[in-house]
Amino acid sequence: MVESILPVSLQNVSVRKGGKSILGPLDLHIGETGCSIVIGPNGAGKTTLLRLMHGLERASSGSVKWAIRKSEAYARQSFVFQTPVMLRRSVIENIAYPLSVRGVRRRTARATAEDWTEKVGLEYAAHREAHVLSGGEKQKLAMARALITAPDILFLDEPTTNLDGASTQEIEALIRVATEEGTRIVMATHDFGQARRLATEILFMYHGVIHERAAVSDFFDGPKTKEATTFIRGDLLI
Amino acid sequence: MNDIIEGLQSAVGLIIHLDHDLIEISLRSLQVTISAVLIAAAIGLPFGAWLSVTRFRYRRLAIALLNALMGLPPVVVGLVVYILLSRSGPFGVLNLLFTPTAMIIAQVIIVTPIIASIAHQSMRELWFLYHDLLISVKTTKWQRMKALLWDGRRGLLTATLTGFGRGIGEIGAIMIVGGNIDHLTRVLTTAIALEVGKGNFPLALGLGIVLITIAILINLAIHTLSRTEREGTW
Ligand SMILES: Nc1ncnc2c1ncn2[C@@H]1O[C@H](COP(=O)(O)OP(=O)(O)O)[C@@H](O)[C@H]1O
Ligand SMILES: [Mg+2]
User: Model-level pTM?
Assistant: First the structure.
């Protein structure tokens, strides 16, 4: 077993865009196991935090430190976007793509991708063009494409926000299996039910910083800050 | 009016009987422009992809320059290539002036910016869609270009055909560097100009019909391609 890229620690990081601060400054330490769920109102900085850790945003100050070299660490993580990105290719080629990028031989990559179409329940659509899939199917494709490289950590940015109940359940089942198999999960959602079902801990974000961090039951049963209490109650938070 | 009708009749006659001169000239036109377009596409398509995925200081300027080069007047291109290839020019020893090779060189210069610019526009849109995913899966720059070139191939074919359409109907540069020499550098456009000058309307019209047919076929192909692309039917 290769050594893990985790833990990751963010030290005094901030992200500024268009002259204003949209994230931080904040400190965060993410350990080797578990499922951390990031919640908070729209515009709180959830997406920015996830993208920053994955290297899709640049820190304006501070640092993100992985247990191994950054360039290697990025190659051992995956990201599932709120709106899945479909390559103009077949389902199976989409799923195989990260393996091809890593230089895996075409036949091997396709065979592995074929296994993954079964694991996510897309075997009936394996040879369709990806863009004809429904929203739920696209997100399942994105899950397969993210997990095919067996990442140490998987980031998910509101993966079920645009999906119906049945598709949400399927995505959640995949996340649960990944967690059980030891993939570290960091996921943003605004669905409290989902947070309760999946999380080991909650990161509550507000105004670009992590306002509160607690085990899932502690957070929902006894939030410590006024803002979190208001947010859970469903009142408007300004 | 009668002249025109008679001209058309004998033009159709020339085409139906596969007139030797007509065939020869048409084939040379295709040979010159297809060669030029293949070379231009080999340069312009990768360049357009590179421009889509690379951020550098003078990128905007480079794109503006590329778009400006699309409007390069062919006559001036012909003049410059003529000077370069003429006996006293820097490449005079190659003896290329008044050969099909000289015509191909001139057309490559005219067509490459067109192909590169149109290809860049279509790949930039694709890059906008792909950006996050391709960065996330840690692609190299070359892998990003490859993804855009492969997945955007319809748009690239359209760009290439547009370049072909521009090249096949071009006369300014080809006349200067080719010299319109019979059985050597005479092509559809230069032949039409010559035959009109001589008052030989049947041959001029026959050549014109061939040229228009080629142009229409190209445009139909472009139209079909861009429609299938818009509808996302691959
Ligand atoms: N490119 C950008 N330029 C300026 N502001 C941005 C940009 N991207 C995001 N923001 C702002 O940053 C804040 C945090 O955004 P985001 O991380 O997407 O929040 P969340 O995912 O929690 O809804 C928002 O107020 C948003 O408007
Ligand atoms: Mg968001």
Answer: 0.91
